[in-house]
Amino acid sequence: MQADWAQALGFLAAVLTTVSFVPQVIYCWKTRDTQSISLGMYACFSLGVLLWLIYGLLVEQWPVVFANAITLVLASSILYLKIKQPDQ
């Protein structure tokens, strides 16, 4: 029973932290404005998320896999825009 509760807590945390990126992604794609975003931060963050995703797969922690797979797509899309549209 405790494992089910812990799994549910993990998925809730995954949903909340992942959803927090959605407004930034929408804003960047609509406006193409990435000037105030740090390239170094998003590069390091995206790499870290990729490593967390691999870790989650290796230890079969599905909340970790779920959150980081989606977050990697969201963060990478911002990173892509930042690289493609250098600061004016």
TrEMBL record:
Keywords: Membrane, Transmembrane, Transmembrane helix. Pfam families: PQ-loop. The chain crosses the membrane at residues 6-27, 39-58, 64-83. GO terms for cellular component: membrane. Coiled coil: none annotated. The keyword Transmembrane helix applies. The keyword Transmembrane applies. InterPro entries: PQ-loop_rpt, SemiSWEET. It is found in: Membrane. It is a multi-pass membrane protein. GO terms for molecular function: sugar transmembrane transporter activity. This is SemiSWEET transporter. It comes from Limnobacter thiooxidans.
